[in-house]
Fold:
Amino acid sequence: MTLDPLQIDRTVQQRNRGRTKSLHSPVGESIVVRGLLIGVSLLFLAIVLLLPLAAVFTEAFRGGAGSFFHAISEPDAQAAIRLTLFVAAISVPLNIVFGVAASWAIAKFEFAGKSFLITLIDLPFSVSPVIAGMIYILIFGASGWLGPWLAEHDIKVVFAVPGIVLATIFVTFPFVARQLIPLMQSQGTTDEEAALSLGASGLVSFFKVTLPNVKWALLYGVLLCNARAMGEFGAVSVVSGHIRGLTNTMPLHVEILYNEYNFIAAFAVASLLAILALVTLALKTALEWRYSGELAAASGH
Amino acid sequence: MVSLPLPQGTRGPQPEAPQGPVRIDVESLSKRFAGFAALDDVSLIVRPGELLALLGPSGSGKTTLLRAIAGLAPAEEGIVRFNGVDASTLTLRERRVGFVFQHYALFRHMTVFDNIAFGLNVRPRGQRPGKSEIARRVRRLLELVQLSGMEKRFPAQLSGGQRQRVALARALAIEPTVLLLDEPFGALDAKVRKELRTWLRQIHNETGLTTIFVTHDQEEAMELADRVVVMKDGKIEQVGTPDELYDDPATPFVCDFLGDTYKFQAVARDGVAHICGVDIPVDEDIPDGPVEAFVRADAFEVVPRELAEGAPAIVRSIRRTGLGIIATVSIEDAESHLDIQLGREMVSSSEVSVGATIFIRPLVATVFATCAASG
Structure:
């Protein structure tokens, strides 16, 4: 079934009219039903989202600010924070390059196997992160395909930083591409054609026309990618080996502290992740608000 | 969507600007899209400095032909020559084609100034004019397209007509050898369309460039172009001046497409066909048998009742225009009501009034033998 845009437009108009002029518009619900629905949604939001968030910060500061800062400044926590930032600093730029290249190819060119490539990009979304981690154990682990060769050359991938980076890249791979593909597809190729017909080379056209046209969607994708890269638990947990001070990222460190019943420290580190999430959300909202038009073509998740 | 041909060897030397306007030879171009022929063995000569219109309904291949000439989407077979040089040996930069896109394709993140300067700014360092020279040229182009003072605006802050003019200025900035426009006025309202039409003619006269534009609007093509190419189903139906097309259409399609004609089915016998109660002579090469006759809306006349000639027609309504009247009449032979244009002298005639029966006859008709292929 196709949706008639005029039809939608009309429905929206009617709804708006209902809101402003009459509480009993023929197409709207009665005020009681509306109040009930809104109330239920808000309650649900509060229980599922706001309460846990509040709990994280309450628990983190249960022992006062002193123990909070002690928890996040002890060496293992510091190492976990550094490792998390390090992993994000590698995987996010790489995924920007991969994501831009993939979406550029998909949106601007016709080639055989295109739909297969699109499916492949979505794979990390559909596969459990634990399996993503297992894949790397299977390939790079001691008894994996490349394990003996790696051992011979004294290269450590699994239970070391390279494994964590690989697993993170895998899990966060779709974020940038998924954000860019719909926008680039809707923009089509005429801008690039115009640039080429004006004498620009392919590279110049890419950097002066293609990239500026998608910069906000790209930034948006990078934010999401970064949030996930720092927060990833499942895949990283499998390949990390949980070596304190060496291969523990922040989410893993939180788990360890929690399992040791060190709740204040666990929540303190968790609150850092929560702050990161909030900052990301705030930036994302600001971007959406400021560049709603440009982002409209890119559908979210 | 099409793949973009990436220009290669862009660091090569810029060819000398050709002297005078360019002649374009299109030789047997063919291109297929998913099984149907977008271009089917099309050959065409574009004379130096002429303003040529590619006219046809959607899907007739006119835009495909334009893009093939521009080198944006090369055809699978055939050659395009610019002044005799096989264009496929030239990069897009070397072709120096000023292309104006249907929806302008202005760079939305750049100001008007940067849009127009783009083609100059992306030149290799050796051939790039200096900053002040670029600014001078952009200002001159803005003057030409009557947008002086708008250089700091962004495309989103311009009206459709202004965007169109920026697109044209941008295309002219690279000092093109030919100017190609894809449906240049397609997205504009009627008034702006008319203004820009006159203005494009002026620009053409001033620059002297060989110019080709695509349109589906026959009025636009006829008014603006030196010659018109009528296309249908990937083939050229007829090439000629507006007068030639109007007076001597080559095919029923051209006749039909050029508008304001009515089709009558008739039978030719002994060199005449009986149409609307009148015997119209037909060409000798048309054999006896079923024929299609096309009569233009302004080629009917009202026959005084006492002559009892022509076809009886009932007047359904009358609209007055500045030049005369348009009467909607119904007659037996025609499939639908006819809107016939009558001269001013008829307005005063009491014969033509709503509900009255008048006698009309065609003054001229174009007759083709009916064949299965003709639409």
